[in-house]
Design a protein that fits this description.
Structural class: mainly alpha
Largest sheet: none
Distance between the termini: 17 Å
Order of helices and strands: HHHHHH
Oligomer: single chain
Radius of gyration: 18 Å
Strand content: under 5%
Length: about 150
Amino acid sequence: MDETQWDIQEVKYLKKMQLVQGNLVMLLLFVPFGYLAENGKPLLLFGAFCVLSWIIVAITLYTLKTGRPIGTKTSRRVRAFDRNRLGEKRWKRRKITEIVFISVISVFLTGFIFVMDFDTVRLHFPIDAFPFIGAWIGYNIGEIIRMNNL
């Protein structure tokens, strides 16, 4: 499909739907991670982040190898639009960069779990939630800007 065949208004609507879905996923992740942080289980919290990051690496690697994205119908159509708009070469380069970046973070998280003594770690939940909330706000601002640039 050529880029000119895509209805930009439909793509903007799909991206808005994807933003709502992303916010729901972040909300669903915030609740159990907040519970783990509040009840003083830092090993489980870091382990959950580690497992989540390795799942993201596996999904991204699968998408790069097969070319088929995993997700909802909305996210698959948005990714198809992005892939068509970027072109095959730039899309592949971005996916490889994404895999390398997330893999490095995952390796550090995994190593951090084996090296750190979690008995001495103390989490202060309301203050420790600010980075997550900042990332959430940044994610929303970035997606809205990308929607407006279409």
